[in-house]
Amino acid sequence: MRRAAHQLYDDPPLVFSDPLALRILPEEALVELREREEVERTHPFARAMRAFMCARSRFAEDALERAVAAGVRQYVVLGAGLDTYLGRSTHDELRIFEVDHPATQAWKRDRLERGGIHVPDTVTFVPVDFEHEDLMVKLAASGFDARMPAFCSWLGVVPYLTREAAAGTLRALGKLPPGSGVAFDYAVARGSLSPVQQAAFDHLAERVARAGEPFRLTFEPVELGELLRECGFARVEELDAEAISARYFVARRDGLAVRGGAGRLACAWRA
Predict the structure, then answer these.
(1) What is the pTM of this model?
(2) Over 90: is that where the pLDDT of 140 sits?
(3) Distance from C-alpha of 81 to C-alpha of 107, rounded to nearest angstrom
(4) Which residue, 79, 8, 18, 4, is CA-closest to 41?
(5) Coil, strand or helix at 32
(6) Which residues contact 78 (CB under 8 A, 6 or more apart)?
(7) Nearest of 9, 11, 7, 37 to residue 22 by alpha carbon
(8) Which secondary structure element, helix H or strand E, spans residue 76, and what is its range?
(9) Does pLDDT of 248 surpass 80?
(10) How far apart are CA 64 and CA 232, in angstroms?
(11) pLDDT (tens digit, 9 = 90+) per residue, 179-230?
């Protein structure tokens, strides 16, 4: 819904162009979004949250483009949700593996069909119950070649995991060949935020907890960098709110920008 709202309510040039976000949404969600137009255009929280979600998708797909230019031909979308890259990809040579919980993935595939969104033959859906199944085993069984480099996006997932689950996934990805990479977002530890930022963090934490998915994991940036290096990643790019806005939101007429300090973006590469 946030990506769809960006297409409807923010000034061009868009930070993240995703027209399929409007087609994949259920009709009732699209109706709700249009009824919320004034809120989406004016409410600071709605605008800041939309800015962050669009920036993280742009960040991941910019990194993917760099990986493809360097010869990577496998793209893994972890926790794919209603991501629409499969319908927007311009790389016929790129194999796309969408990984998600079986029930979520079945719903997504129904939304793709109802939205008339073509799924290319280069796309493979990989249903994984992360509580009981091994990610790399399921990927291998679906045709993923762990001997070849791959790029992974992992958006909107890490803050809801246990530390053990997040570290386990990073260790698995860190064993992929050189040239592989992963882009993800994470939450900074609450104690390192200013009082104003803590209030914004608490507001968001309350919202996601009411939705049944409470925040479980935060990182200090230095701690995360150490974990990534331990997992086999040699290069790490990290953006805080100020850096995100400097990269994607400079001189916008509508004033859209990322606010607060809780959410950050990271991209880690195998040497």
Answers:
(1) 0.94
(2) yes
(3) 9
(4) 8
(5) helix
(6) 99, 135, 152, 153, 154, 157, 169
(7) 7
(8) strand 74-78
(9) yes
(10) 19
(11) 999 999 999 988 887 787 788 788 888 888 888 888 889 999 999 999 999 9
